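WARN retry 2 of 3 for item q-0093 after timeout on previous attempt; input resubmitted unchanged.
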Amino acid sequence: MSATDSNAKPQDNDSGMAAKDPAKRRRALLIVVAVFVLAAVIWVLLWLFVFSTREKTDNAYVGGNQVAISAQVPGTVVAILADDTQRVEAGQVLVKLDNTDADVRLQQASSALAQAVRQVRQQTDSASSADAQVARAKVDLKKAQADLARRQPLIAEQAEAPEVVQHLRDGVDQAQAALDAAQAQAQAAHAAIEGTVVTNNPAVEQARANFRAAWIAAQRNSIYAPVTGYVAQRSVQLGNSVQPGQQLMTVVPLHDLWVDANFKENQLRHIRIGQPAKIESDVYGGSVEFHGKVIGLGAGTGSVFSLLPAQNATGNWIKVIQRVPVRIALDDKELDQHPLRVGLSTEVTVDITNDKGAMMAPQGSGQPIAQTDVYEQMTSKADVEAEKIIKANVRRGDAD
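OK item q-0093 returned
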């Protein structure tokens, strides 16, 4: 082999490699382009079918009613029957106050009610006695008139002295005056009881109302739980002198809870009343998913209702994206299986596929959103106790 041939081979190899490198580069470029195109397609599909159909925020917290328990009458605490974290039922006694003074006033009101019933009975008897006096006066008048009529013809025959006849006439006038006085006395006696029986007499009704007030005041020395829930923020201690309206503890019902999700203002465009939502709470680490629905949007941003609202008219103004609370109702059955606590952090995802609903909540139905009958039961028991006192002091037949 000559030197010329040996030099020719390397040149052929170099030209072949040079021919192959552009093809590799084109294939690599196509692969990169294909990856970017595929990523773009995937992103578009995700946006169309996932991201554009939901709004998501982790600025969301569990909310609930916090029922403040306060005293209704002044007094000194003698017993505390519930403590923080304990469950209490509606109508359960939470705190007891010293009821010495209230018991005295209740006994006075009870005696006054019994006395009122007996006074009405006495007035009824007096009216009956007055009626008897009227009947007697009528008999006396009739007798006097009969005597006068019998002696009147004897004057014409001069068989009777004029003084006797005049005396008879005076007797008739006296009998008539006695009848008029008896009728007036009977009317006065009937004025206090006319149109009523013992149980609905005004005096008895007034005494009954005073007894009810004293009975309820005595019962208010026992402070009841108006709802079923869990005790929190107990501040009352034995021996405390409490005043009406003073908060002693809080009862939190953990059954009817909601989530306040604070969405950015640019996320509210498609959020509507009734849209379904999924909620994950940090307390369960994402292993439990709660389901709810949007029931309302706040009437303003959080900054407006804050303790110190932002002064946006100042010279050093900086635009900050505001958030609006969106209230989401939770499923009570899911709460029973996986309890939540007020204030827990959550992550909320609202399905905005159907955005044809209303943005503003409708007018309320007028029905109470929360209600308790604990205090109504107290009033009913007061009526029962008053009826017992009345029946014990009324005669059979007087109440009809």
